[in-house]
Amino acid sequence: MGTIKDMASLKSAVAKHRGKVVVVNFWATWCPSCVEEFPGLVKLRDEFGSKMALVTISGDEKSDLDSKVKPFLAKHNAGRNAYLAALGDEAAFASALGWSGQYPVTLIYDRKGERVEVLEGAKSYDAFAEAVRRHL
Amino acid sequence: MRILVTAAHGGVSPGAVPIGGGAAVIGQLTAYWAARGVPTTLLGLGDAEPAPGLDYQRVPVSWPSGRGPADLVNLNEVDYARLCRDFEQRATEAILARPDRDDVVVVANDLSEGPDFARLAAAGIPVVTLWHVDVVDYFCRFYLGGLDPALASAAWRAARGGVAALPDMLHLVFAKQAAALAHSARHIVPSSAMRRIIARCTPGAEQRVEVVPWGAWSHHADEEDVALAAAELRREGGLAIGDTLLVTLSRLSPEKGIERALESLALGERLGQMPNGAHLWIGGQAAYMMGQRYRRRLERLAGELDRVRVRFLGHVSGARKQALWRLADVYVFPSRHESYGLTLAEALSAGVPVVSTEHYSARDLVPREAGIIVPNEPAAAVPGELWRALRPLLVDPARRARMADAARRAAARLDFDRAAARVTELLASVHRTRGA
Q1: Which chain B residue lies closest to A119 (C-alpha atoms)?
Q2: Which tens digit of pLDDT belongs to each residue from B361-404?
């Protein structure tokens, strides 16, 4: 599993999916709201197929990678495009995204790779689907 | 849904409240709910008028002889613990007696001033706990000589069956936190570090913890009032144009480490490095639990400085607080222990560069371009580290200006309303799934 260390590595992870709407979800196994919304994101990925990509970035500790993160991702069939956050200057990273620091947060990138939405807090499948459709 | 907020400091004037940050947050949250028509009742023990639009239910408690709500800040640890225990039971009875009890979500603002978590859970009333401090962690650091809170929690779990009548103080710290962790539907903490402490001390409990950083709220002081207050502060403090103003703002309490800021300035003087025209203004009220004694210590240290002019401002709010931010060149935050650091968020919002010791949220809040974070350990090195951070800022206004711009940019994401909206969503979610 790759790591996201800074804005450059996030941009690089998103750039791999140029031409698709990219949904980037920051989540963690310790975050109840993240765990609740996660199946909706997987459903979104399955239903939009090749038009969108789901990138997940876990805020868990590295020590929880094998015991918690990987089993969770495997259970939800979401092992691809999955990263671990290992940020240096966390405040600068959050500031660049306009992210308050709440988990979960979901970023929507359009097909050109521009960040177009920042959705903080748990969202329903319908809210995600609507956001993706806006940028297809 | 009706939100019932339990907060012993409810209805007590701000200057007399011992838990500054926690009281400020719930004050803003209840104002947010009142402004949006979310039915909310605040249960407190004070007799002051509630905020406009907010329903207030006063919970009668037994005060120590001759004391009342205005004395809350002056209570010692034992009296405060006794008062909280009394409030716990009476607030719980008040909630259980409400005709709308099947339609409420209780928000416990701070563990120590919360209700009886077990009784409410047994009655099917969901409780969401707002954590402003991990009480066990705090108690271990400042009362048990730095004992590992995970060890203390484990020892507590092992021993509690053998403890028949628990002293109020231990009840306040260990039993209350254990009950909150066992019976709250959700816990809301302001930093990931605080979540990690909870997870380490009480394995399993972290599955109900949500991290919601509070950010900073906007102040609506009249511009003319702020300008007048700034002029007045300048005049009172002898702050001339071209002088450099360092500000620190918190309860006056040993864990805030304010003496380390004074010691760092004393070091700068001893080294002959202190520039002309340096001021340190210390805002905040002496807190309960050693606060008065600590203030005297700070005054003594301030009296030993030759070149830096130090002022104690007392409780600062409204236009005067806004004016203080406007005048400040650097915000100094030398705290030993902080769950979040509301004033750091405020400083960034006001475009004031920060020098802070490292604590749970400092690195989450302050980007490198906007502030300097110095290690909190080893303790003996902190004044020196603070001085090393402060010295270049005292003599370089251009650098301060660049950091101020970065601070404003960093603060754009720290919007309290986003946190309030998230808390409201979480309460609604808990209400929807009650009994499930």
Answers
A1: B418
A2: 898 899 999 999 999 999 999 999 999 999 999 999 999 999 99
Whether B160 shows a pLDDT value over 70: the answer reads: no
For the stretch B14-47, pLDDT in tens is: 666 655 788 889 989 999 999 999 999 999 988 8
For residue B421, the chain A residue with the least C-alpha distance is A121
Residues of A in contact with B207 (CB under 8 A): 30, 32
**Alpha-helical runs (H) found in B144-219:** 149-159, 168-170, 176-183, 192-201
| Complex confidence, ipTM | 0.81
On chain B, the residues whose CB falls within 8 A of the CB of A97 are 413
Q: What is the pLDDT of residues B177-195, one digit of tens each?
A: 888 999 999 999 998 888 8
Q: Which residues of B touch A30 (CB under 8 A)?
A: 195, 199, 206-207, 209
Task: Please check whether residue B336 is in contact with residue B374, taking contact to mean a CB–CB distance below 8 angstroms.
Answer: no
Residue of higher predicted confidence among A43 and B254: A43
**B129: which residues sit within 8 A by CB, 6+ positions away?**
B107, B108, B111, B114, B117, B180, B184, B186, B187, B188
Report residue B166's pLDDT band, with 50, 70 and 90 as the boundaries. Answer: low
**Closest partner residue to A89 among B199, B368, B415, by Cβ?**
B368
Suggest the residue from B186, B187, B192 to mutate for an interface test with chain A (most A CBs closer than 10 A): B192
Among candidates A61, A95, A102 on the partner chain, residue whose Cβ is nearest the Cβ of B410: A95
Rounded to the nearest angstrom, the gap between the alpha carbon of residue B232 and the centroid of all alpha carbons in its chain is 27
- Domains of chain A plus CATH, in order, are 2-127 (3.40.30.10)
What domains sit in chain B, N to C, each tagged with a CATH number?
2-215+416-432 (3.40.50.2000), 223-411 (3.40.50.2000)
pLDDT tens, residue by residue, A50-92: 999 999 999 998 999 999 999 999 999 999 999 999 988 888 9
**Is residue B432 within a helix (H) or strand (E), and if so which, with residue range?**
helix B416-432
Check CB contact under 8 Å for A32 and B209: yes
Kindly report the nearest CA distance between residue B356 and chain A, in angstroms: 14
What is the value of pTM for the model shown? 0.88
Distance of residue A51 Cα from the nearest chain B Cα, in angstroms:
30
Assess whether pLDDT exceeds 60 at residue B161: no
How many CA atoms within 13 Å lie on the side-chain side of A74? 8
Long-range contacts, stretch A40-47, CB < 8 angstroms, 24+ apart: A40/A123, A40/A124, A40/A125, A40/A128, A41/A78, A41/A106, A41/A128, A42/A76, A42/A77, A42/A78, A43/A125, A44/A125, A44/A128, A44/A129, A44/A132, A45/A78, A47/A129
Tell me how close the Cα of B364 comes to any Cα of chain A, in angstroms: 5
